[in-house]
UniProtKB/TrEMBL annotation:
Top-rank taxon, per record: Bacteria
Domain Hemerythrin-like, first and last residues per copy: 15-128
Protein name listed in UniProt: Cation-binding protein
Species, as recorded: Aeromicrobium terrae
Entries under Pfam families matching the protein: Hemerythrin
InterPro entries: Hemerythrin-like (IPR012312)
Length: 182
């Protein structure tokens, strides 16, 4: 990753806390992305890395275990994956903008913020609350370590590069998670 923006590098902790810390980072980065006082190109790259790494780690290690160990349903987990795909699609539109000082960029950022804020809210209500209420500390610590390890590995692999985001969007379309449309 070339970005100088610090994405943190947790290696252990309660999975709910680790996920919420990333959600705070998403909100901060979205605010910076809206501001012309920021290095918006650096911010979009940092946001891309964090979004892909976080969502992949949730889908690989957190959602599957919570379906078994808590009242999180298969539908809620699948809906989360659908919203990750929508987030990647909105992210791709931001990354594809040639410049960061255009109306097109502002519109793409507005859509990204809408999609991601919706997902953070829904995930905290339907996935993190049951995770906190239904599971024990030990499982949440195990999931925290698995989540953090995958998240950091993804960031080290430069997971936010545009080719990788495009690959994930195309894969989601093939799997029917988002419309083939645009
Ligand atoms: Fe999340
Ligand atoms: Fe998520």
């Amino acid at each position: 990753m070339d970005s100088a923006i610090d994405l943190g590098r947790p290696t252990s902790g309660d999975v709910v806390d680790l996920i919420l810390e990333d959600h705070d980072r998403f909100e901060r980065l979205l605010r910076q992305l809206r501001s012309t006082a920021s290095d918006r190109d650096a911010v979009r790259q940092a946001f891309a890395a964090l979004h892909v790494a976080h969502a992949e780690a949730e889908e690989k290690h957190v959602y599957p275990r919570l379906k078994k160990a808590s009242s999180v349903t298969k539908d809620e987990a699948e809906h989360g994956e659908h919203e990750h795909a929508e987030g990647n699609e909105a992210l791709l539109a931001v990354l594809e903008c040639a410049g960061t000082d255009t109306q097109k960029f502002d519109d793409a950022v507005e859509e990204l913020a809408r999609v991601v804020n919706h997902h953070l809210t829904e995930e905290e209500l339907t996935i993190l609350n049951p995770a906190r209420e239904d599971t024990g500390e030990q499982l949440r610590a195990e999931l925290g370590e698995a989540f953090a390890t995958e998240r950091n590995r993804q960031i080290d692999d430069d997971c936010g590069r545009i080719e990788n985001v495009r690959r994930l969007v195309n894969k989601a379309k093939r799997h029917g998670l988002i419309d083939e449309g645009e």
